Amino acid sequence: MTDYNFAYLDEQTKRMIRRAILKALAIPGYQVPFASREMPMPYGWGTGGVQVSAACLTPGDTFKVIDQGADDTTNAVSIRKFFEKTAGVATSEQTSKASLIQTRHRIPEEPLTEDQILVYQVPIPEPLRFLEPSEVETRKMHALEEYGLMHVKLYEDISQHGAIATAYAYPVKVEGRYVMDPSPIPKFDNPKLSMAAIQLFGAGREQRIYALPPYTQVISLDFEDHPFEATKADHDCDLCGAADSYLDEVIMDDAGGRMFVCSDTDYCRSRRAAGHVGAQGAPYEEDAA
Amino acid sequence: MTPLLNVRDLAKFYGSRRGCEGVSFDLWPGEVMGIVGESGSGKSTLLSCLAGHLAPDRGEVIFDTQLHGPRDTLTMSEPERRMLMRTDWAFVHQHARDGLRMGVSAGGNVGERLMAVGARHYGQIRDQAIDWLGRVEIAADRIDDKPQAFSGGMQQRLQIARNLVTGPRLVFMDEPTGGLDVSVQARLLDLLRGLVREMGLSAIIVTHDLAVVRLLADRLMVMKDGRVVEEGLTDQVLDDPQHGYTQLLVSSVLQV
């Protein structure tokens, strides 16, 4: 613990990141450049999210990390351990107990509250990246609010697939101004982006931070005759029976066996603890794992 | 009547070398003007300055905007100029690849300008795209093909459809028939002539092909070394050239 400054980064770096965060909160959806540091993990593993978390953590925080909704995957476990070691903060797997949640590719099912912060790991912050290769041009397009090109992508989706096939990283317009990439969350989560908690987005390799203040208006782009639809697998969770949560499909054997389970592990566990049982679920036991 | 485009003493230098200098002219609504000259005579520089792709060193380019009347496009703000570029103006590049999004289907290419000015109804965008593909003689069943799958002539026609779909009032064309074989050129010229007449477009066409201006242009400007050496009605300039360079140019055309 004494080998590191609190939460790994030095205080000047944290100040720099906090300034970027404040600017990002002041201009919702705008990508603020920041001097991203090298972190002891590879790019693509959440270096941006980790830096934002480090800048926001206080000793009294309770920290939770989820990766695709799960608390127990490599990425989540490693980042949680990283801050246990470098910041000594309390950690929890329970969404409601955490004051700071770092996430990769999901928003927790349980609604967040005003005293919570949600930090996203962002691989590519620029929603126009694959449409317009020039960064100079895309910045100009953001500045002048020229977003017709974003709809060309959705047009191409419909013309090829008959519906908007973009299922994740679905572009949104923030407060009627900036078009933003909500990070690769499933579009099922898009309606939740207008929430009570502060949402911070950190892209380490791309050196960008952007943010959504509480209760920001976030609208998913669509066409009048092809409205946005938040989709999920047409199934209930096989473990807890939830019909309203985003599901992962798990292949069970090589004979076509499969089950659908909540991608949010904490949500699924708390439902089972409350006595809900799905089609393939066994009754919940406290220390079953 | 106010001219659609009023150009006054336009000059562009590349360091000490002259791109074009002392160019002044009026373009009236519905008029097509040709700019001819040999390679390096400053035609393309002039066109780029007019279309806002290059910033000239001197001069005025006053465009008769729909909302605010005549405005100098060189001093207006960048958002305004870019708005003009995707509504009232159109630019047809010599190479279709420069003017098209090669990774986007033909329908998406035509629809882009519509979406850029706020169209948000998929069905209507698609209907308009099909309509415009028909007008430039591209079969409706090619609407979801990418431009890579098109021949050079089709790509050029697609580029024209993409540019004209928002009903611009002024079209800049840089060698629109360059690099196409003669029979395809002839069809493209036919098509362009029809569209220009039908939509009452004003156009500025840069070319070194005198046949193109003979067919399309009402008026002609001949450039040499960055200056306009002769201008007048197309037939007049081509049939009775006054300046030595124009005479050379006209007599250089092979008679088959």
For the largest beta sheet of chain A, what order do the strands appear in spatially? 1-9-8-5-4-2-3
Query: Kindly state the mean pLDDT of chain A as a whole number?
Result: 94
| Structural class designation of chain B | alpha/beta
Please give the count of helices of chain B: 10
Nearest-angstrom radius of gyration of chain B? 18 Å
Number of helices of chain A: 6
Which shape of chain B, going by the Cα principal axes? globular
- Give the termini distance of chain B in whole angstroms: 43 Å
H-E order of chain B:
EEEHEEHEHHHHEHEHEEHH
Query: Which regions of chain A contain 5 or more consecutive residues with pLDDT less than 50?
Result: none
Question: How large a portion of the residues of chain B is in β-strands, by DSSP E?
Answer: 25-35%
Return the structural class of chain A. alpha/beta
Overall pLDDT level of chain B: 91
List key phrases describing it.
heterodimer; A: alpha/beta; 7-stranded mixed beta sheet; 3-stranded antiparallel beta sheet; 25% helix; 17% strand; B: 256 residues; 4-stranded antiparallel beta sheet
If you had to describe this structure to a student in words, what would you say it looks like?
The complex is a heterodimer of chains A (289) and B (256). With 289 residues, chain A is an alpha/beta fold. Chain A has 6 helices and 12 strands. In chain A, the strands form 3 sheets. In chain A, strands 1-9-8-5-4-2-3 form a 7-stranded mixed beta sheet. In chain A, β2 (62-67), α3 and β3 form a beta-alpha-beta unit. In chain A, α1 packs across α2 (47-56). The longest helix of chain A is centred in the N-terminal third of the chain and has 16 residues, at 11-26. Chain A is globular and about 55 Å long. Chain A starts with 10 loop residues before the first helix and ends in a 16-residue tail after the last helix. Chain B is an alpha/beta fold and 256 residues long. Chain B is built from 10 helices and 10 strands. Chain B has helices at residues 43-51, 78-86, 96-99, 106-116, 122-135, 152-164, 182-199, 210-216, 234-239, 244-251, and strands at residues 5-14, 17-27, 32-36, 58-65, 69-72, 89-92, 170-174, 202-206, 219-224, 227-233. A 6-stranded mixed beta sheet of chain B has the order 6-7-8-3-9-10, sandwiched between helices. A 4-stranded antiparallel beta sheet of chain B has the order 2-1-4-5, covered by helices on one side. In chain B, α4 (106-116) runs parallel beside α6 (152-164). The longest helix of chain B is centred in the last third of the chain and has 18 residues, at 182-199. The radius of gyration of chain B is 18 Å and the shape is globular. The A-B interface holds A 144, 146, 148-149, 151-152, 155-156, 158-160, 222-226 and B 78-79, 82, 86, 101, 104-105, 107-108, 111-113, 115-118, 120-123, 125-126, 143-144.
